[in-house]
Amino acid sequence: MNVVYINSASCISVQDTLNENFFQNLKSENSVQILKAIEPNYKEFIPPAMIRRMSKTVKMSTVASHYALKEAEIENPDAIIVGTGMGCSQDSEKFLKNVINNNEEFLTPTFFIQSTHNTVAGQIALGLQCHAYNFTYVNTSSSLEFSFLDAKLQIIDGEAENILVGSTDEQTDRTMELYQLNNTIKKEENLPADHIHSTTNGVIWGEGASFFVVGKNKTTTSYAQLNDIQISNKLDLYETKQFIEQFLAKNNLTNNEIDAVILGFSGDAQSDVYYAEAMNLFQNSVLLYYKHLSGEFNTASGFSTFMACHILKTQEIPEIMMINSVKKEEIKSILLYNHLGGNDHSLVLLERI
Question: Is pTM beyond 0.70 here?
Fold first, then answer.
């Protein structure tokens, strides 16, 4: 049996996703260029002396992983796997500024040590005193999907029973300036953004951290079955249909058997054409989008996975996510399709338990 279960889901995002009633309070964020995550009171989870030394992504991940483990009733996972696109870029920027300001002399190594991408997974392990497998994937927009794939293979091979899987990315001032200069971020005159029918390039940039406990066994807290994952670094537009149909065929499914599809429409007219192409395959499915709620960033698919888990468990679909008017009596399967700027395409198939 190649099925593993998502037994908990936690998310810190630009929405108030740590709140139990977040489904009712979702707001579209399409009028600003950069979206900031709603952060919890870190003092409730992290000693104040440590907070000062932690970058935002480490703090967000520490809290999100705490909630995920608590919900799954797991004290120490058999592995910790984190996906990130930008890593601890705040500390990277601080180190580089020190290099410039001090003419490459008398540098303290702290910011450099904390700037590595695997700092997040390492800090979580230190906090838990977990000496198990600890790995970080840095694969731009498919970082979380590679992390899920690793966890799934380990559980199927009998190497682990419960694995903490997460994704996290933060913003930094200088990187956001560069993204604005190279038009990755949408120009102010093109706001508010139309995420579905955009005629302009660029995105609204977000941030966040999403963590899940993936397990061998179904539990009382289980959200969904994680059935399959597929990743492709490059796709031509005409290959989109084949990419999806082959994935479904591998799982003995047709497009008409998928109840809901969550697409990563970002408002970037140049790369959203892939999602428009995918929509044509699913005329009878509920079509959803989410980046008007989370913003675009390397691991934004963590937010969509979190939303998909809650949709499967509650059987409720927030109206603010709906693209079409198709209704289903029951949502049994959800397909997630994501990429970043037309690269690193990923498909994730989740099924109701």
Answer: yes
